[in-house]
Amino acid sequence: MDGGIMKSQGIPFWVWVCLAGVVAFTFVPLSSRFRAEQSNRAVELSAEIDAIEQLAAGQQLSLVEALDRLKRSGLGAVVVSEETLDDVAKYSGDLRIESLPEGAGTRILASQGIADRLAKGLQVRFGNARVQVAPLPDGAAEIMVVGYHYATLRGVSLGLPPQWTSVIRSSGLRVIGRMSNPLGANPDSVRGSIEWASGQGMAVFLPQGEQVLGRREGLDALIESFRSKGLLYASPEFVKIGGDSTVLREAPEIAVSLHSAQTAELDRMASSEIVERYVRAGRERNCRILLLRPATYSSEAPLEDFAKLAGGIRDGLIRSGAGVGPARPFAPVQTLPFLPALLCLLSAPVAFFAALAITANRSIASLLTVLLLISGAATLTGAFVSYAALALAVLFPVAAFVVCERLEAVLPVRFLAVSGVSLIGGLCVAAVLTSPEYFVRGAVFSGVKLSLLGPIALVGAAAFVRYAGGWPSLKQPATWLQLSLGLLVLAAFGMLAIRTGNDNPAAVSDLELRFRAMLDALLYVRPRTKEFLIGHPMLVVSLGLMALHRSGNRKVGGWLALALALAWIGQTGIVNTLCHLHTPLSIGLTRVAVGLMTGGILGGALWLVARRALRPGGA
């Protein structure tokens, strides 16, 4: 069986033609996506203004000097949070506030330096009718807010601090405005807040708190204001903020992803690990803004140390090919009309062939093929694209099992052919889900768990029936070894299910984090652990055991069934890698290739040991 280079007598020629056709039709959207990603690789480094000022004070530097030093280290933007009336009242001695009796309102006497800003903030929030401004000598003003007690006024936004925005802009840096969603905000106040911040130089909006400004009824006004003012929306990575997903879904063309880390996290990491964390976010997850924070609060030269950290991240990005520059959204991806339906149509013969080969039942094979065609036809309505993507993501790893059984070739060729068929499933998902919102997590592939676990269950069941005796074998007495292996496999698949998905709740151990860090240091792209340590090595072992089984050694049947089930962790992992649509296509494909190479080498070594153990006499 392993004598020739490649014989495909067990697989009809038309199956290969259909597979080639599917790959060919994914080329247009995938090549367009690749170009969009390659043309937008610049990452913008940013830091918070209050942290910069504190670090500068630690070295007796002015804010202007600090910004200049950080700019030379790659800083491109500064984050400034809005101030409230209560914030200003705490440090300003130029305010006299009096709540009038019987709910008449609040009288505020403000000096020249703060009067205009205070009046503007109150008018944006409550409207001109409720806010009466009476000029006083020397530029001061008496501001009457009719009908509202001071307790209601305390949280009113007074916009971005002008003493900071002016310095930032004069230093040649961009302003990232961080604003919250006050209780009682309406569409008019949302528009007014964004217009005011834009006039102060805000180029990028960053949400603050638990909700995006205008959450629910005011989000349309927010998005409209962003578009009219040419502003970007920065979506914090791994943070749940109300309204964030809506903005990303409705306006992906103005959105970019932002990555940050808390000082408590950074304090446990070495400088090289901090740099690598930020570089990976920019290179591997399409984060176009990195919000840097100091790794420590105290040092001999705190600002200089922070500048060195920024410079290290800048250099790491440049070495990785990402580069440093102003953040911008991704361009739309060119695709083909009716592509999901076309891919389902081309895949239908493959589905029928695979289903018939596994079930030996034409009715079941026909039914499954019709369901695939229906899922493709449903996409012609403009909806249900995710369902078609899910069907294709499940189909090709299952079809790869049939290729694994039927293709006659040397073991390395079979290994690559099986993995290549599985890869087509991932290419289909990446080709049909190409809307800009997928780049910024405004939309995610909702079938991640099913596309990963479904083929494993189907292939495991088929292998159990074919090679381990099926259900009758369960009536036989079980050994302690079989029970232990069964529990171990169940635990492994349970952990796989828990740790799979767009939001996985399982924590990663410190040992695994250190192992990942080592792989990141050794390899251009770190392969997925479950693929190169479990799935791909077990595929090599499965192919070897299958050859022994066909040669008449039926005793390996149970081990073969177990090995195949474990091997398909790697095959579905290949698909799953390309289902992370916020990861650049080049990174995903490289990760698959590195995983196959390292896993194949480990599998080859494992098979050499296993083959010796399976020889008569164990040697």
**Any idea what the radius of gyration is?**
30 Å
Biggest sheet character: 7 strands, parallel, barrel
Percent helix range: 55-70%
Terminal Cα span: 24 Å
Low-confidence stretches: 1-8
What are the defining features of this structure?
TIM Barrel; 619 residues; 3 domains; seven-stranded parallel β-barrel; four-stranded antiparallel beta sheet; single chain; 58% helix; alpha/beta; 13 strands
Short description:
With 619 residues, the protein is an alpha/beta fold. The chain has helices at 13-38, 49-58, 63-72, 85-91, 112-126, 150-153, 162-170, 187-199, 219-229, 244-250, 263-266, 271-284, 302-319, 339-359, 362-378, 385-406, 411-432, 436-439, 448-467, 480-498, 510-522, 529-550, 557-579, 585-614, and strands at 6-7, 44-48, 75-81, 95-100, 105-110, 131-135, 141-146, 174-179, 202-207, 232-236, 255-260, 287-292, 408-409.
Can you describe this structure?
Residues 1-8 have low confidence and may be disordered. Helix 2 (49-58) crosses helix 3 (63-72) and helix 16 packs antiparallel against helix 23. This protein is elongated. It has helices spanning 13-38, 49-58, 63-72, 85-91, 112-126, 150-153, 162-170, 187-199, 219-229, 244-250, 263-266, 271-284, 302-319, 339-359, 362-378, 385-406, 411-432, 436-439, 448-467, 480-498, 510-522, 529-550, 557-579, 585-614, and strands spanning 6-7, 44-48, 75-81, 95-100, 105-110, 131-135, 141-146, 174-179, 202-207, 232-236, 255-260, 287-292, 408-409. With 619 residues, it is of the alpha/beta class. Helices cover 58% and strands 11% of the residues. The strands form three sheets. The chain has a seven-stranded parallel β-barrel with strand order 2-3-8-9-10-11-12, surrounded by seven helices. The longest helix has 30 residues, at 585-614. The protein has three domains: 6-38 and 332-618, no CATH class; 44-82 and 161-319, Divalent-metal-dependent TIM barrel enzymes (TIM Barrel), CATH 3.20.20.150; 86-153. It contains 24 helices and 13 strands.
